[in-house]
Fold this protein.
Amino acid sequence: MRRKLVVGNWKMHGSRPANAELLAAIVGARPYGCDVAVCVPYPYLTETAAALSGGDLRWGAQDCSAHEQGAYTGEVSATMLAEFGCRYAIVGHSERRACHHESDLLVAQKAQAALARGITPIVCVGETLEQREAGDTEFVVKRQLAAVIHRLAHCAGEIVVAYEPVWAIGTGRTATPEQAQAVHAVLRTQLQAATGHGERMRILYGGSVKADNAATLFAQPDIDGGLIGGASLKAADFIAICRAAG
Ligand code: PGA
């Protein structure tokens, strides 16, 4: 039985007072019947770690460098993240693939860098609307995941995968539970074939998950939780989503 995982992806949102309030509310609503984490902007890691320390809530980053150290202005290494107790790092989010031209190979290298420092990469895959309409969804998500599996080899069983259809992110247009389940099943088959551990690996759904649609998404057999953007910034909504997974 896979324990569900709900991860808040704050993106480039937050402020010190707003974060303190949000984190206090998340802590105050414990316990949850699932694993819960928040992935916050880098400058907020210290305070997030302090606010969540000592409990069972986890925190992480929204990216990490593929490099160990060096002349890479603006980048943050997995080693640095590990110093802050990060459990997770999102890699390959579609906003980074699109805005920062991240390739499948770079995403795989980032996943490898995170794992090497004991940080679980949350590897995002997902198709655009154009790709879905062309019937290419399976091809695209399998190609994105294959790059990571190939790079990580025997460690590939250690990742978390997030299926995030690009057309559903921040649009209020959620994949139906059936659409999401169909892709999750494809990804699990791929993970099982590659690692032999597909049945115990977690595959999250992300893309306009809200308090009122979380339960039906999480009820699907291959949806093991969610990666939550907009709704993770509102305490009541995020807590309700975590409860739906519990
Ligand atoms: P959303 O974002 O929940 O706001 O659609 C999800 C994500 O981008 O991870």
